Amino acid sequence: MAEQEQANSKHLAISKIYVKDFSFESPQAPLVFKTGEWTPQTNLNLRSAATPIEEGIHEVVLTITVEAKEEDKTLFLVELQQAGLFELAGYGEEELAAIVGGFCPSILFPYAREAIATVIQKGGFPEFVLQPINFDALYMQTQQQKAAAAAGEVTSAEAH
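and the corresponding structure tokens:
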């Protein structure tokens, strides 16, 4: 009986959080600092991916790209892969997918936000703050889009 309870118990732990890849570019420096006005358009792109490393251990990588442009000129470009190793056991397939797709990126995001803000400021630019992101909602939205696309494929396949 105790063995069955142990087999059904769920386990989630953070083993390691680390930077996997990080780059900062400021192609217009030093001329960008002479303009005086600071009104760039900022683009944010993020994605996450999970890879099983071994039984019960998953690497989750949150990739964030921030680009600031003024007209057609890139003022700075930051690309970061913030990663973590997570011990996950006792979860079903759907639960596991939700954890690595929503919960784990939420754990990694504050580390990524701090690293990005620091490198932008060290690059000579004004303070940059990434707003909080609800990764659970993004995961659910992605799942709904996949389900809708699959339903559309089934519907179009049935029409033929």
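(Above: one complete record from the training split.) Helices lie at 2-8, 93-122, 135-159.
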